[in-house]
Amino acid sequence: MTSPSPAPSGGGSDWPAQVADTIVGYVDQAREKTTGPATKVARTVVYGTLAALLGSAALVLGLVFFVRVVDVGAEVALDAAGLEKAGRSTWIAHLIVGGLFSGVGLLVWKRGTSVAEP
């Protein structure tokens, strides 16, 4: 945007229009400096919140899907071995997933609490 022209000096028949253009130019500059960054921050907050909510929902659904896949896999394996009883595959699936998450958690915890040598 071009900077507003200075106020007219001397007599001219179109000076009211020039003064109005100068005022409009200053108002536009002020608007760009205030509402532009505020709009950008507001969009960032809204889209960031939306992404966090959708990401959380996707994570939960992914974990449910993972547990279900392990459950079905355990049921198929137990059926093939002739060891399936009602609910046994579900307990095995929870044991496998819980052990996996606990192992990952312990590794992360150990890595986070280790002291770096100088």
Description of the molecule:
By secondary structure, this protein is mainly alpha-helical. It has one domain. It has two helices and no strands.
Write the layout of secondary structure elements.
Elements: H1 15-81, H2 88-113
Helix pairs in contact: 1-2
Please give a quick description of this structure.
The protein is mainly alpha-helical and 118 residues long. It has helices at residues 15-81, 88-113.
Q: Strand-residue fraction?
A: under 5%
Helix percent band: over 70%
| Radius of gyration, in angstroms, nearest whole number | 33 Å
> Any idea what the shape is?
elongated
Task: Return the structural class.
Answer: mainly alpha
The tally of structural domains comes to: 1
What is the mean pLDDT? 87
What's the number of helices?
A: 2
Major beta sheet summary: none
Structural key phrases:
single chain; 118 residues; 2 helices; elongated
